[in-house]
Amino acid sequence: MQFSLHFLLYFSLLSSIYANLDDEERYFFCNNNTGNYTNGSTYSQNVITTLSSLTANASLTGFVTIAVGDSDTVYGLVQCRPDVSLSDCQACVNTAAEDITRFCPNKKEAMIGYNNCLLRYSDLRFFSTASNSPIAAFYNTGTVNDANVFDTQLANLFRNISISAAWNASKFAAGAIGYSQFSDIYGMVQCTRDLSENDCSSCLQAIVGLIPQCCDQKQGARIYAMSCGLRFELYAFFSTSTPPISGIWPPPSVSPVEPSLSPGRTTNTMVIVVVPVAAVSFLVILVVGCCYLWRKAKKNAAETQDDYETTMESLLVGLDTLKSATANFSVVNKLGQGGFGPVYKGKLMDGREIAVKRLSSNSGQGLEELKTEVLLVAKLLHRNLVKLLGFCLEEEEKLLVYEYLPNGSLDKILFDQRKRLRLDWERRYKIIVGIARGLLYLHEDSQLRIIHRDLKASNILLDEQMNPKISDFGLAKLFGESQTQGNTNRIAGTYGYMAPEYAKNGYFSTRSDVYSFGMLVLEIVTGQKNSSFRNSINLQSHAWLHWTSGTAEELIDPVLADPWPRSEAFKCIHIGLLCVQETAADRPSMSDIISMLSSHSVTAPVPSRPAFFVTAEPANDSGLLQSSDSIQRSVNEVTISELYPR
Predict the structure, then answer these.
(1) Over the stretch 395-406, which tens digit does the pLDDT of each residue have?
(2) How many Å apart are CA 430 and CA 425, to the nearest integer?
(3) What is the pTM of this model?
(4) Measuring CA to CA, which residue among 425, 422, 435, 466 is closest to residue 568?
(5) What is the pLDDT of residues 188-231, one digit of tens each?
(6) Residues labelled as active-site residues
(7) Which residues of 248-259 are buried (b: 16+ CB within 10 A; e: fewer)?
(8) Which domains does the chain carry?
């Protein structure tokens, strides 16, 4: 058998693609469209610093993103496969940092990848933005015997592991599926870890769709895009260290570059394989499977109540178990106190660490309400939402069991003079984006529309990698798909984060959550509590006065060491002020906010004066407010356009 290297060209790349033809392990992409940098320039020095930082930190977690430089900023990313050892990861990254400047000299954007790792840098912020433009594909020239069965099983395998990878924090999954009596198909997929579930899934779907065009009926192949990659073989290749290619396949030969995926050229191939026994067996299996699914569908309605009871039963946790895990709710294990009761750290018999919320007797939630909330919240699966593991209703106790997050709540770090030093700009921006993605899921992507109603720094928990997770759904309201707002006579929440229409009249909607998000963004950027201001002024007014007077830079938390990207910081202040506007209809939706956060250059309306506006200088108030009505400005690539009356 031979192993052939085959390049995929898209007209959208509009740039040269290079590869070392003597080493099928390496692929790389040099973007000619972004231009070159000169040696000794600021950008050149920032590239050197970026590669050095990525190399130094790669083996800590296997994934690093970094932004270097106030001007001529360089954005870098490095990622290793999670199934390789830290030493193999470090060795791979060391090689990548050396090779990328050798194969892509003086390029402002470049990427290089190997079996064990990939490294990328650019003059544009590409974090959390998926790119499924194909770079290269390697395939085994040997073909399979039974193409129909192989293609069907390969599709099933990639569908399953792609779903797993999209949901996993590592954005990696591998598995195997039966192919013949003597062999299985082994597959692996991986996205860069900064991608959302949807973006990872879309990227993987795109490159899986390329298999018939580049690697049809091949015994093995690898396809790489900028943000994701896949591999399949007829042997197990995923392990602690990558199996040596030599000894399995002869030395590679190289096929000429072919624009096989260029626009206007498609390949429609129908393969008919006549294997009577296999075909009959497959038909029998298909018929039996269809009958099974049909019968199962008929029973779904009758089983709905049984499913409900089964789900509730699976979430029940015994009181004795939780008492043992928390040392009988010992003060030593107390993590904090919320409006609905204290939270305790616990450890189960299997070693899992948990957080147990003990609802007080006057929490206001009835038994049936609590059961309904538990059932719905348990089905919320998103990387930026705290996962509910179970609940307990015994001896007048109402206990909720959540995953334990070691870094605690955001307020404990953000508002601590010593701990806040851990929150550099990159982490703060990551937290803002993560909270936004979690809220978008609640508002638009979950089965029911969910209004949180109590979004604040103490309800944002941080995992071991400082990824944010929204917690505490005690005040959440569940809506049908078409419902977007409601009202209540029982106003509960946290003043300072409440939207004016909710605090004054009890009206709540997705835009009242957006208001809370805006206050949270301003806190993260400034490092100041909204409750730390005196009666003369508040956080949103403080931010507004600086924004309108052109001194927004003074808002940035002074503990942030230079360089920090001013364009991103000003963009976050802009978004925060848009979110805290008086009129709910003027505030952006969470999908709008995600678009603004994801874009390097964004067009957004001028924010109007925030709700609850006060000023410490009443004599100058009228002048400031009058000027705010007609401001049009561009702040560091954040293009602002006039907001016309609705």
Answers:
(1) 888 888 999 999
(2) 8
(3) 0.51
(4) 425
(5) 999 999 998 889 998 999 999 999 888 888 999 999 999 999 99
(6) 454
(7) eeeebeeeeeee
(8) 1-7+129-260 (3.30.430.20), 25-127 (3.30.430.20), 319-403 (3.30.200.20), 410-641 (1.10.510.10)
